[in-house]
Write a structure and sequence with these properties.
This protein has 14 helices and 5 strands. The chain has 377 residues and is an alpha/beta fold. The protein has 2 domains: 125 residues, abc type-2 transporter like fold; 198 residues, no CATH class. The chain has a 5-stranded mixed sheet with strand order 2-1-3-4-5, with helices on both faces. The longest helix has 32 residues. The model has no long low-confidence stretch (mean pLDDT 81).
């Protein structure tokens, strides 16, 4: 082996790497990004479940019970409601995952050494969160019952009953059997829609640039705006057909029915596709080659999978990671999909997610068109 020739090849390769700074940056940034995202986001430990409380007893004993639930670390109790209708609204909108109902006679029955019932209403659309909430609440009820029976036994002249002091009754809404399939399929619909649309658009435009056909189109009388819209329309049609196919498979193959309005679901899917097309155009303005387009797409897809709530509950993530997830459009679209498909809710419950999704779509599409026009002019 000739060392001089070997060093020449090494030198030549270093020069090539210097001429491709985006790939060089990704080689160092991507591993760090993956480590941070996987380290904080990939967890099956569910904590800080948003919980609404309907305290009809309003006694010292009920406040002690609420504090026990809060101290477990699994329940974030910041919302108190005045009636069951208000609790239903919070569960439908996703602002609460669990509802705890304490009856009016809670304190009186405890003092009489009688069994009293608690009711737990759990959002079953995410089985992992539902199982954690249910098991934690059962532990709290059993522990509280045991403590109260011991206290009763110590009182003179009173015996102890084998019947527990607290009878926890629970109801699982939206997904009574807590089937993972019904949680995963709506998420997969959103993820596939985003990835297919974004990558089709990005690769098509970059491929045109690599082949030199984009420059040939530029010298024709076609205006930049007409060129952009003309190239996007076929992908809009393809993406919408994909929506219908994926939704059809979810309903008829995986038996996940749409409990809400199909028309609303398709309309909001179109809004989401506009944002996905904008992301694809943005990738094409950043990347110069198809390899770079693939790398940039991967940097967008990875956070979307992990931080949007597609696989792991966002409640268990650190606040800073949750904040990063708010800039990912899939975060809002997943809540819309699961809200319409599993809960059957409408715009009155989803308007915040719809508004933010629309703003993102308009912003990224406008930015991408401006950047694309500059490269075409």
């Amino acid at each position: 082996m000739n060392m001089q020739r070997l060093l020449s090849i090494v030198k030549k390769e270093i020069i090539q790497i210097k001429r491709d700074p985006p790939s060089l940056v990704m080689a160092f940034v991507l591993p760090i990004m993956m480590l941070l995202i996987f380290g904080y986001a990939v967890t099956t430990d569910v904590e800080h479940i948003n919980t609404a409380v309907l305290d009809q007893s309003k006694s010292q004993e009920s406040r002690q019970l609420i504090e026990i639930f809060r101290n477990t670390g699994y329940f974030d109790i910041d919302t108190y409601v005045s009636d069951f209708k208000e609790m239903t609204h919070l569960l439908d909108s996703g602002k609460a995952r669990v509802g705890l109902i304490i009856p009016p006679d809670y304190a009186r029955k405890l003092h009489r050494n009688e069994q009293t019932q608690l009711q737990l209403v759990v959002d079953g659309s995410d089985p992992l969160v539902a199982r954690t909430a249910l098991s934690s609440a059962q532990v709290v009820a059993q522990t509280k019952s045991f403590d109260f029976k011991i206290k009763t036994l110590q009182q003179a002249g009173l015996g102890i009953s084998l019947k527990p002091a607290l009878d926890l009754r629970y109801r699982i809404w939206y997904n009574p059997n807590m089937e993972s399939m019904k949680f995963n399929i709506p998420g997969l619909i959103g993820l596939i829609m985003q990835n297919i649309t974004m990558m089709l658009t990005a690769f098509a435009l970059v491929r045109e640039r690599e082949r030199g056909t984009l420059e040939q189109l530029i010298i024709t009388p076609v205006k930049p705006g007409e060129l952009i819209v003309g190239k996007l329309i076929p992908y809009i049609v393809i993406a919408f057909i994909d929506v219908l196919v994926i939704l059809g498979f979810g309903v008829f193959w995986f038996n996940v029915p749409v409990n809400g309005s199909v028309i609303l679901l398709l309309a909001l899917s179109f809004v989401f596709l506009m944002g996905a097309l904008g992301l694809g155009m943005f990738v094409s303005t950043v990347a110069k080659t198809q390899l770079q387009a693939m790398q940039v797409s991967f940097m967008i897809i990875l956070p979307s999978v992990l931080l949007s709530g597609f696989m792991f509950p966002r409640e268990s993530m650190p606040k800073i990671i949750q904040t990063i997830g708010y800039v990912i459009p899939l975060t809002y679209f997943l809540r819309i999909l699961r809200g319409i498909i599993l809960k059957g809710v409408g715009p009155s419950y989803l308007w915040q997610d719809i508004l933010l999704l629309g703003l993102f779509g308009i912003s990224i599409l406008t930015l991408s068109v401006i950047r694309m026009k500059k490269r075409l002019d």
